[in-house]
Amino acid sequence: MLRYAIHSAAIAFGRAGHRLREHSATPCGPTDTASETSADVIKTLQVASTRVECTGVAIQSCLQVREPSAAPWTLLYDRIVGFDYEPGYLYEIRVKEEAVANPPADGSSVRRTLVSIVSKSAAPPALIGPTWRLASINGREALPGVRVTAVFGADDRVAGTAGCNRYVGRGPRPARGSTWARWR
Q: In the chain, what percentage of residues exceed pLDDT 90?
């Protein structure tokens, strides 16, 4: 990495006894700003225990990440270099983010590289993702003879079937007292 640049804000030129003129500093040789480490950013991210289907250039499977733990999950369409994701675990990781010079049109302008895994803990069974069936409400069989299913999304969306009807909507997680069994 070669780098030449003038770093002072102004340079004075002149001879003794003559008035000095000020000139702004400008680069005087090749510079390589893409590889400067001062532009790199270290961040701590949480990674969810499940991947979700997402659409970038094509349908793919995305990691769900968030920066502060209270923030909503966002989709990460790119990979994290050096991170071997294992489903079923909630991760807290430190990553280095670097700008990518001239990224492809369908690529990210940021490259993320794993710095360290701060924590890796087994996640409780995920309500988000799989298809569930309503088994009981307050200890009693739920709607005998009617199959009620639900798929819960990470963004508080829910979709499913209730007998011959389909439904979609937004709402809180299932109410206390209801029991959901994983659809088999």
A: 30
